[in-house]
Specification:
The chain has one domain. Helices cover 82% and strands 0% of the residues. It starts with a helix and ends in a 6-residue tail after the last helix.
């Protein structure tokens, strides 16, 4: 690994870690596309690396939010139980898939999430505009 790559990877970690902890986005939304497009990782290598990176990042973010009392632990227990089993099945499925198909599915999921978030943000903005008091002049 060259010094430039190390600097780039550190910058990626800082950027994704900040977004993950600040906005609650999964680091994989940042890590995977950047590792594939900037650092020329294969899709599966980027996904595996991203998952390994997310563990310490998620722990730090979780501890910080837990101290502030912002975690619904019963929801965590239910979702995490299903998530553990689904993660195993998903990782096994990904190993069997064609990487190009996997990359396209990943991109499609990102687009769908972006559109949904954009529409929700627009709807909330419109509602706030409609309920805002009108300045008569």
């Amino acid at each position: 690994m060259s010094p430039l790559e190390i600097v780039g990877l550190v910058a990626l970690g800082l950027f994704a870690g900040t977004l993950a902890a600040t906005l609650g986005v999964g680091g994989g939304i940042i890590f995977v596309p950047v590792l594939v497009s900037v650092f020329d990782f294969a899709q599966l290598d980027a996904q595996g690396t991203s998952l390994a990176i997310i563990v310490p990042t998620a722990i730090v973010g979780m501890v910080t939010h837990a101290k502030a009392g912002r975690i619904d632990w019963p929801v965590v227990a239910v979702v995490a139980t299903g998530g553990v089993f689904a993660a195993f099945a998903g990782a096994m499925s990904a190993q069997r898939m064609d990487e190009e198909l996997l990359r396209r599915i990943f991109a499609f999921v990102l687009v769908i999430l972006a559109v949904r978030m954009g529409l929700r943000t627009y709807r909330l903005w419109r509602e706030s505009q409609e309920s805002a008091p009108v300045d008569p002049g």
